[in-house]
Specification:
Strand 1 and strand 2 form a beta hairpin. 28% of the residues lie in helices and 45% in strands. A six-stranded mixed sheet has the order 2-1-6-5-4-3, covered by helices on one side. The radius of gyration is 17 Å and the shape is globular. The chain contains three helices and six strands. With 134 residues, the chain is an alpha+beta fold. This is Lumazine-binding. InterPro entries: FrzH/put_lumazine-bd, NTF2-like_dom_sf. It holds the Pfam family Lumazine_bd_2.
Length: 134
């Protein structure tokens, strides 16, 4: 019996897109780990934004703010992260980044769009935890 709500049996997202999406997210974590701004430029759209909480404070602004933070903090070689694709369509994706460095942890949601045939982060939503679980 055919499902009447799904008249065509078409896979919505190519497997290659999953690999490309995760590669962009990994570029972001590599940028944080190495403090390499070039990785941010490769993974984020030129007009990308970010917003989120650092403790009780909410902040938002252009992704260039992230470059300033990376410059100030320097490399984070102890960063460990886990990437998980939460959702995809043929032109959008949301990747969850769970990461820890030293005594803090953070959770980012990278909202991506496929622009000119290339996956790019459009918005970074984040929460910085004051402490990580021991």
């Amino acid at each position: 019996m055919r499902n009447p709500t799904c008249p065509q049996d078409i896979k919505p997202t190519r497997t290659a897109d999953f690999h490309e999406i995760l590669a962009v997210a990994k570029l972001y974590t590599d940028a944080v780990r190495t403090s390499n701004p070039e990785c941010i430029h490769k993974s984020f759209h030129k007009d990308a934004t970010m917003c989120g909480h650092i403790g009780p404070d909410f902040a938002n602004g252009p992704v260039t703010d992230l470059l300033e933070i990376m410059k100030e903090k320097g490399p984070e070689p102890s960063l460990i992260s886990h990437l998980h694709i939460l959702s995809t369509t043929p032109t959008t994706a949301i990747v969850e980044v769970d990461a820890e460095v030293d005594t803090v942890g953070f959770r980012d949601h990278l909202c991506m769009a496929k622009v000119d045939g290339r996956w790019q982060v459009m918005t970074k939503l984040y929460h910085l935890y004051e402490k990580k679980r021991a």
